[in-house]
Amino acid sequence: MIRILVADDHAVVREGVKQILSNLDDMTVSGEAGSGPETLAKLDRQDYDLVLLDISMPGRSGLEILEDIRNLRPKLPVLILSMHPEEQYAVRALRAGAAGYLTKASAPQELIGAIRKAARGGKYVTASLAEKLALQLDADAEKPPHETLSNRELQIMLMIAEGKSISEIAAELSLSVKTVSTYRSRIMDKMGMKKNAELTLYAVNNQLLG
Question: What is the CATH number for 174?
C-alpha cells in the first residue's frame, strides 16, 4: 500500500485527490497538509511512501519545501501537482529532485500512473517535458532570460506578469513590500527590462502564464 501525504493549501484539491484514489487497493491518502511547515511537521512525525506537493502554497514556495523534504527524507519521492503549466516550473522541479511534475488539469489516470511509477523509484516525465529536458542538456543551447532567475524571482516575476501589485504579492507570499520591491528591481535588471508590461509581454510570448 502506497501511503501518500497530500500537501496543498486548497481543501477542495485535497478532497479531489482522495476521491480519485478512494477506490484503489494499492494506494491511500494517509495524511494532509495545507502549508509548508505543516508538511514538514507531518513528515517528521509519520512515515509516508510519497508526497504529492503543490508548488504554490502561501509563504515559502513549493520548490523551497521540496528542498526541505529532500534534506529531511532524501529517498522519499515527491510528485509536484501544480496549477502552473510545465513551461514555468517543471524543469526546475526535476532539477531540485522531484520525482515528476503534473498539472492539475491532468487526467485522473495520469495521476495514478505517476504515483505508481514514482513510488517504485522511477521518474514521471511527460513527452513534452522530456523534450524540454533534452534541450536543457544541450550545452550550446542558449538559456532564455527567465532561466537566469532564482526560483523566488521567477515566482514573483510571474505574479507581476499576471498584473498583481507589489502589496498584493507581499501579502500572498508573507513578505514585506520592501522585500518584494527589491526582488522586482533584481528581476528587471536580470531581464533587461524597465516596465511591468514588458514582463507581461515576455511571459505571454514564452507561454509562462497559465
Answer: 1.10.10.10
